[in-house]
Amino acid sequence: MIIKTPSRLHMALINMDGSNGRMDGGIGLTLDRPNFILEGNLSDSSKITVDFEEELSNDIKAEYTKKINDAANKILNYYDFDYGFDFLVKKSLLLHSGLGSGTQIALATAKIVTELLDIHKGAVVLSTIVGRGGTSGIGTYSFDFGGFLVDGGHNKDEKPDFLPSSASAAKPPKLIARYDFPEDWNILIAIPKSDSVNGKHEVNVFQEACPVPSKEVNEISHIIFMNLIPFMLEKDIIEVGRAVNEMQYKGFNKVGIDIQNDKTKDLMKFIYNNGAYGVGISSFGPALYSFFDDNNKDIVEKTKEYLGNDGIVFVSKAQNHGYEIL
Fold first, then answer.
1. How confident is the model at residue 63 (pLDDT cuts 50, 70, 90)?
2. For the chain, N or C: smaller number of CB within 10 Å?
3. 3.30.70.890, 1.20.120.680, 3.30.450.20, 3.30.70.920: which CATH number matches 186-316?
């Protein structure tokens, strides 16, 4: 069995002041590339093996192997099965880049294991078992549905502390809205070579920066629900870009920008100053994104020239469906 997953942009965590009995809440966009492609089959033994079609460093192979093993074992333990699986990573996603690789790896693994054992569950159930979606549900719903997604965050009775998904035991939040995103819009993705924010560092950022000022939570909520989403539905790329740009300097998004190094901040300024319709950072980065059309398509080559060998630049589009079985 072979599964191809999308990646995703995580565009904002909204309610990071924990007001009105809730916290978190997020918006994000499913991307048609880059993808993660995983093949899995039942093994003749009780072991789990992981192999790779691509040339990857030993460190990256080790991290992929651990993530796939962890997800497979959590599923097998939950359903009390004793089977082995042989996995082949046919196409890898860049780890710790802000494009949601951890959730897609875990869910692709979980989906293969359950389907081959004749268990048919959606991404919310699988995310709960493998421990994803404890802060944001965007990766979970990207896997199943694709499109532009809004989740409603968590009840503080279930999740009383500000924590990233990697450190939260909460279930994935409810999906409160999903829209098709214009598939003809071009999306510039620029990933500078930079240290990622994960692990203990990520936990510390959440605990030190939250709660964010309620005034900024209200402001970013207004931008999202009264600007970004309506303009998206009206297919106004310039106004959507303007809303994305305004979001970067409010609430928890501002926290994500503040912890970036000068290289990433300078790249954001460069892209914006060269005609982009707004520039955003996905999750804690370092991936940056911007929307463009024929009127400002030269930002792609300009960004490639600016970064040179110090990062990755490519063009993606929205994907309005979830994973595929190949």
1. very high
2. C
3. 3.30.70.890
Query: Average per-residue pLDDT in the chain?
Result: 94
One-letter amino acid identity for 248?
A: Q
Question: Are 289 and 189 contacting, i.e. CB atoms less than 8 angstroms apart?
Answer: yes
Q: Is the pLDDT of residue 227 over 80?
A: yes
- Relative to beta strand 288-292, strand 186-192 is antiparallel
Interatomic CA distance for residues 110 and 71, integer angstroms: 6
Question: Which of 95, 44, 51 minimizes the C-alpha distance to 69?
Answer: 51
Torsion of Cα atoms, 189 then 193 then 195 then 196, to 10°: 20
What separation in angstroms does the CA of 47 have from each of 1, 44, 50, 69, 85?
Answer: 18, 9, 10, 10, 6
What is the C-alpha end-to-end distance of the chain, expressed in Å? 8
Confidence (pTM): 0.94
